[in-house]
Amino acid sequence: MTKPTQSRELILDILMEILEKGGYSHVVLGQALSKYQYLEKQDRAFITRVTEGTIEYRLTIDAILNQCSKTPVEKMKPVIRTILRMSVYQLFWMDRIPDRAVCNEAVNLAVKRRFAGLKGFVNGVLRGIIRQKDQFDFSDWSLKYSMPQWILDMWLKQYPKDTVEQMLEAFLAEKPTAVRMNLDRASAEEITEVLKNQGVTVEESPLSPRSLLISGYDYLESLDAFRNGWIQVQDTSSSFVGDVAEPEPGDTVLDVCGAPGGKSLHLADKLKGTGLVVVRDLTEAKVALIEDNIARTGYENIRAEVWDALELDSSWIQKADIVIADLPCSGLGIIGKKPDIKYQASPEKIRELAKLQREMLSAVSQYVKPGGRLIYSTCTISPMENQEQREWFLETFPEFSPVNLKGRLGEAVNEETMADGYIQLLPGVYPCDGFFIAGFLRKAE
Prior knowledge:
Layout: H1 4-20, H2 25-35, H3 41-56, H4 58-68, H5 78-93, H6 99-112, H7 119-131, H8 141-144, H9 149-158, H10 161-172, E1 177-181, H11 188-197, E2 201-204, E3 211-215, H12 224-227, E4 231-233, H13 236-245, E5 252-255, H14 262-270, E6 276-281, H15 284-297, E7 302-306, E8 320-326, H16 341-344, H17 347-364, E9 368-378, H18 387-396, E10 400-402, E11 422-425, E12 435-442
């Protein structure tokens, strides 16, 4: 196993990149774990846990630090602030590490990063926190669940209090990796057997027979089922887009914002080698991610292109049987996987995103042929981007009507709104991400 200080140095570097330089947590952590793949599984698990936990609980951690430090968190030097944040996470949420060890390692880190003059400050703040550890009050939901108050207020206006608490608890719970099986590539039995033979813990998703929940593996690329293209990392909620779309053999599908390609690959799988799926995204880098997944899975009825969804492509007008519009959103439904989202979001950004979504929908809805379907989805829990967006679309484009979703998502998912053509999935209420799907049918001429 790596020496404790070395592991914590890596954590410090990762957190500095995310918390101080604005890097995306899943990208920065993923790149670091890939670079240090030679580390023991236990070391990488520790690095992941402390990194993700520090980000998840940052709001609460900062409140603790401000209570025990004469220097406010925002006035601290970035390195010291990050060392203290990751140390507080270990003190409060990692019982197996002795408090003394956390404190000593924090001081060692400060010295190693040439802040020997502040080692007394680091030591004093952490020892003060240790002395008062049992006296902190986390009854306030914002601190208990480390969630910005404006997000809580928005959700409490829309949902019962116990539903909101279910969501908050689900975001912080440890979850297995959800994967969708490409059943045109291998059977569910074969995929499950190959995973189990590599020591992976496999559960069937309670929501979909196409999805598995896997855990206990070292890293994804080591799994034969992944390398063979038999599985695709995709939350069950996201895979429902393909079920709502219900492609028929020979259909032409256009996915306008598709990276990394999970929904499009699902549709290619459902088409069983027929038809064509064209999946687009804004940049070469995003399209490269899609192409990697296409190459790994081996589908031949799918291709990727660079295209800006805001720009109308006249060659596609009324040509698609199905248009998938999984548009840029605030991402509040996937806070459990990307915890930095809750700190980056704001009411102003949501308003800007809602405007962008309307501009995109105005363009891409023109690609749906008469009798074809438009599927709008987001990975957020924000009425402005979801329910209000659906209402606006139906009012603005009377040539479209809602698609009844009853029965399309299996027996485990049943909401009254599905008869009206939409569903808002909530984490905790369902064992999946927060996700919104609305289906629209273009009336036949």
